[in-house]
Amino acid sequence: MLLLAGGGGLLSFNTGFAIWIAITMVVFIFLMAKFGVPPIMKALEEREHKIKESLESAEKAIARAEQISKDNEKALREAETKAQQIRKEAVEEAELIRTERINKAKEEAEQIIDQARTSIEQEKRQALTELRSEVAKLAVASASKILDSELDEKKNHKLVDNFISDLQKN
């Protein structure tokens, strides 16, 4: 019972105090609605706008990054294709150079062989000529010793030349 007796207990009700609380609350709500809520709402709207802009920016950046990625992939494929083409051309060029060098070496070898054949043929003719001359001299010398008085040297030389010529024809 003490609680109901008016001494400021927990369950006691003071009407004057309640009215002041209600008036203060209305004034607070009015002041908040007039001066506090608009800046808060404005700040929230600005924040929402910035978030939307950030999301749009992020979407644009993602789209741009995807486009750049596609462009990079395309450039990479083109570079690989070009590299393969360059490799192919280099191999073809190397093969062409190799073939040219082989052909040139064959031509030079054929020229050397032809020169050697020509040189051998000339040396052979020269050797035959020298051999004929030597044989003629020997034949004339031996014939002149045998037939010392019967024939002269010019006739002997002519006879031996005719004999050697006849041997070549056969």
UniProtKB/TrEMBL annotation:
Protein localization: Cell membrane; Endomembrane system
Keyword Ion transport: yes
Keywords: ATP synthesis, Cell membrane, CF(0), Coiled coil, Hydrogen ion transport, Ion transport, Membrane, Transmembrane, Transmembrane helix, Transport
Molecular function via GO: proton-transporting ATP synthase activity, rotational mechanism; proton-transporting ATPase activity, rotational mechanism
Pfam families for this protein: ATP-synt_B
InterPro entries: ATP_synth_B-like_membr_sf, ATP_synth_b/b'su_bac/chlpt, ATP_synth_F0_bsu_bac, ATP_synthase_B_chain
Record GO cellular component, one term: endomembrane system
Major subcellular site: membrane
Gene3D superfamilies the record matches: F1F0 ATP synthase subunit B, membrane domain
Membrane topology, record value: Single-pass membrane protein
Keyword Transmembrane helix among UniProt keywords: yes
Quaternary structure and partners: F-type ATPases have 2 components, F(1) - the catalytic core - and F(0) - the membrane proton channel. F(1) has five subunits: alpha(3), beta(3), gamma(1), delta(1), epsilon(1). F(0) has four main subunits: a(1), b(2) and c(10-14). The alpha and beta chains form an alternating ring which encloses part of the gamma chain. F(1) is attached to F(0) by a central stalk formed by the gamma and epsilon chains, while a peripheral stalk is formed by the delta and b chains.
Function (record text): F(1)F(0) ATP synthase produces ATP from ADP in the presence of a proton or sodium gradient. F-type ATPases consist of two structural domains, F(1) containing the extramembraneous catalytic core and F(0) containing the membrane proton channel, linked together by a central stalk and a peripheral stalk. During catalysis, ATP synthesis in the catalytic domain of F(1) is coupled via a rotary mechanism of the central stalk subunits to proton translocation. Component of the F(0) channel, it forms part of the peripheral stalk, linking F(1) to F(0). The b'-subunit is a diverged and duplicated form of b found in plants and photosynthetic bacteria.
Record-stated family: Belongs to the ATPase B chain family.
Protein name as annotated: ATP synthase subunit b
Species: Gracilimonas mengyeensis
